[in-house]
Amino acid sequence: MIRKRILDMIFEGMEYLKNGTAKQLRVHQVLSTNGIFDKLDAFDPVVVGTIPIGIDLPDSDIDICCSFEDEESFVNSVTSCFGDQQGFSIRPSRKSKDHALVVRFMIADLDFEIFAQRVPTRQQLAYRHMIVEYKLLKEKGAVFREQVLDLKREGLKTEPAFAILLGLAGDPYTALLSLE
Asked: Are residues 111 and 133 in the same domain?
């Protein structure tokens, strides 16, 4: 449990992005300049996905998980904060078994996707996948990282790329979580 708490601390807030890749630095700058985390603070925002763990591609969007108790308050808040941004939309998620909302918009030529549901942020699947992937990247090193990136450049999504390289059978999203 201590190890999980340390990982949670690594990805707390957005300050860790200041010490990363060029894309991470850019994301930090846009998040800071536009007060995005301040605007989302009531919803426990966490940047998730490929950017925090350094396996993003040039066209990767900025994924943020949020948690809400009151869906209407969340919708009103993000509409008020981001509704005037290019490409703004809110829709129910088609992927999630639990009810979730997907908010999209663009700021400073970066695409943002906020995934929000009534599940605590650090229990959401995207966060859990990222933590498993982070541990695997640390454990398996630079060659494995490049193999993941090569598969992603060929068009594979992140979880299927990991599953192929690890020889995991079945649904790659579920299989990856079995490694938690």
From this structure: no
pLDDT digits (tens, 9 = 90+) for 85-96: 999 999 988 765
d(CA 135, CA 140): 9
Please indicate, yes or no, whether residues 63 and 141 belong to a single structural domain of this protein.
no
Helix 2-10 and helix 125-153: axis angle, to 10°?
Answer: 60
Say if residue 116 is in the same domain as residue 133. Answer: no
Does pLDDT of 84 surpass 50?
A: yes
Containing structural domain, residue 41: 2-121
Number of domains in the chain: 2
pTM of this prediction? 0.91
Per DSSP bridges, beta strands 62-67 and 46-48 are antiparallel
The answer to whether the beta carbons of residues 35 and 81 sit under 8 Å apart is no
Partner residues linked to 103 by β-bridges: 90, 114
